């Protein structure tokens, strides 16, 4: 039970509505204290190579002369937390608890639809995210007030917007896929939830993960099946509300993400060795973006939002960022047998997932990178849980 609670804390500490509502620093420190207590209670030890690799996170925090001291302190706390965590919980157990939690949140969040339809409100205090969007608080999930007011049928679970929730759903799907826990029913559940959330990039990531297992031996019949499935999805997008994602106004989202990438790419070229400093997005990237794009383009409907997690991270920390990106995109854990090309499909799915939602500055990023490093080093611990 303690391990389940630790995984729940990691999830909630990754910018959930509770994390945003009650204070990012408070949640981060609370998670550290709980993990620290369990670590010493269970008398765990830390492998030296995991410790050394973990402290690379600290190196990238201070390698730039313009590093942010607050970012460094938070990175220190997160790094120590995760180093202890992977000593406590075997990754397969972590992934199992993670998937159970996310699937439960997803299932309960289906109630979002009748809540929006009947325009219901909660008697509890509202969730208010950092961007000041108001959510009705239903404890296990939140519903955006403007979704209720305007009849927007999308699910955002315990996060500030639907795309952020799909981030966690995609990671859950990947875990179940890699450990061969998927069956027809659970696969259908994930796809239905993806459609209810309404994230096009999220659905694309799930399709890429599904294709990764058999991508090296696709024959003509399978290719025909694939075309039929993609055609069905196209019709679904075209004749449902999801099609709104592709109209002129909603294409602003795609343009905004392109601007995010363009800013990060050009800032990386200016200082590829050490980057412009972790945690300096507001101080450095915003003025740079205004100069690069022009005032009118920057503050248009397609305003950059810094959602390009991986490319922004690399532009902030320089070449060292590619080491973290490799372990994030090419994990070696799981029991399923996948070809090299299939692994590339998974890497592409993760790249899309992390580069459309910026979770690289949150603890879930540290967790995935360090567990992946352990899997490559053969250090995934075999403690009974």
From TrEMBL:
The chain crosses the membrane at residues 26-41, 48-65, 71-89, 101-120, 163-179, 188-212, 218-237, 310-333, 345-373. Keywords: Membrane, Transmembrane, Transmembrane helix. It comes from the Bacteria. This is Polysaccharide polymerase. It comes from Vibrio parahaemolyticus.
């Amino acid at each position: 039970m303690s391990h389940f609670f630790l995984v729940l804390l990691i999830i909630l500490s990754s910018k959930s509505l509770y994390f945003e509502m009650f204070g990012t620093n408070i949640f981060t420190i609370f998670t550290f204290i709980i993990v620290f207590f369990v670590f010493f209670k269970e008398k765990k030890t830390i492998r030296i190579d995991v410790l050394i690799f973990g402290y690379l996170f600290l190196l990238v925090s201070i390698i730039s002369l313009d590093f942010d001291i607050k970012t460094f302190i938070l990175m220190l706390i997160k790094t120590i937390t995760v180093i202890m965590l992977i000593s406590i919980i075997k990754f397969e157990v972590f992934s199992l608890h993670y998937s159970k939690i996310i699937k439960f949140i997803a299932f309960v969040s289906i109630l979002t639809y009748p809540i929006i339809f009947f325009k219901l409100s909660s008697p509890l205090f509202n969730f208010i995210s950092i961007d000041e969007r108001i959510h009705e608080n239903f404890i296990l999930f939140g519903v955006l007030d403007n979704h209720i007011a305007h009849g927007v049928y999308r699910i955002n679970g315990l996060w500030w917007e639907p795309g952020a929730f799909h981030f966690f759903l995609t990671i859950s799907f990947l875990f179940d896929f890699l450990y061969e826990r998927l069956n027809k029913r659970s696969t259908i559940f994930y796809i239905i939830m993806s459609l209810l959330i309404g994230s096009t990039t999220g659905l694309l990531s799930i399709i890429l993960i599904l294709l990764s297992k058999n991508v090296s031996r696709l024959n003509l019949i399978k290719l025909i099946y694939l075309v039929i499935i993609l055609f069905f999805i196209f019709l679904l997008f075209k004749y449902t509300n999801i099609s709104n994602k592709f109209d002129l106004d909603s294409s602003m989202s795609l343009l905004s993400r392109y601007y995010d990438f363009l800013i990060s790419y050009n800032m990386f070229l200016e200082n590829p060795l050490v980057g412009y400093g972790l945690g300096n997005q507001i101080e450095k990237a915003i003025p740079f973006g205004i100069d690069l794009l022009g005032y009118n383009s920057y503050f248009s409907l397609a305003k950059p939002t810094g959602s390009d997690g991986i490319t922004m991270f690399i532009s902030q920390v320089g070449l060292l960022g590619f080491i973290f990106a490799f372990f994030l995109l090419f994990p070696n854990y799981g029991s399923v047998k996948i070809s090299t090309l299939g692994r590339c499909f998974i890497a592409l799915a993760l790249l899309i997932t992390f580069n459309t939602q910026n979770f690289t500055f949150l603890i879930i990023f540290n967790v995935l990178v360090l567990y992946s490093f352990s899997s490559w080093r053969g250090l995934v611990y075999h403690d009974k849980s």
